[in-house]
Structures
1.
Amino acid sequence: MNINRCRNCGTKFLVARSVCPKCGKEDFEHVPARSGIVLESVELIATPDPYPDRYYLVLLDVDDVKVFCRSQEKLREGSQADIQDDELGPTCRKA
Ligand SMILES: [Zn+2]
């Protein structure tokens, strides 16, 4: 998973944009997101294919950017989690 960072003003955001939401420039760099702090961890018991039938949807704070990832275990709020990418998107686990 990569975070987008504006080279002009340093604003960081997850979802790709054509212009910076703060300064309007169009020059970005991609910063790898490898770990974050758990904000929420919620178990999903109804999921779309091809995802597992149950997993935890985890909201992480990655350098002040909020991102989602999947976890097979509940992660404690405030704890550190490592992020990895698989074919279905980002996953995370206890650091
Ligand atoms: Zn900017």
2.
Amino acid sequence: MPLTRFQLIKSILFLVCLVPMVNLVWGFYADRLGANPFEALTRQSGEWTLRFLLLTLLMTPLREILQQAWPLRLRRMFGLFTFFYALFHLITYLWLDQFFDWQEIATDILKRPFITAGMLAFTLLVPLAFTSTRAMMRRLGRRWKSLHRSIYLIGVLAVLHYLWLVKADLREPLIYAGLMISLLGYRVWKNWRKRAPLRTQAGIN
Ligand code: HEM
């Protein structure tokens, strides 16, 4: 069966989403990640996780603003890439940062708030990744939507994770926080507008 134009674009986008990973792994083996390649792997994979998370959250407003269906058809792929980069990010931390010292890792999760937030965000991502299929969507029905609402909490935890780990220059994490606030704020605003007629009916302003 020949590929439709959308399938072709989606396949190309899939390959484009893999570029940062190939670039990171290749950079590591070619010794092009600077003086501390382990740290660079953790940091850059973390940043890519956040970028994919923002991209995933952008799809719903884009669909509503453009009145087109294609953003929703890309949302799951971007969401799964968020999980893919988050998993890689977590593995670099467990392996290259902590050398699988589980006691040290447990202490880190309990003692350092930015690690707590990151770990929580990752834990919440796991069920979303495993229930992302169409079959699971059908099986869970209304509960699927409720479950997938945790993506908003993940967004908040992800920016807190970044803000809390940075000690000096807050500019970059603040830019990401601003983007996250805009994407989540859009949803709050939409919800508020949707409920406005109900409030008027009930005499509340
Ligand atoms: C959705 C989940 C996560 C997101 C979006 C995320 C995002 C990020 C970002 C944006 C950075 C900063 C990159 C930079 O400095 O340029 C970072 C760094 C880091 N993250 Fe995460 N992260 C997540 C989960 C985790 C988890 C589960 C852990 C470990 C338990 C973790 C551990 C770290 C560490 C150790 C650093 C580097 C800190 C440093 O070099 O001082 N992250 N992460």
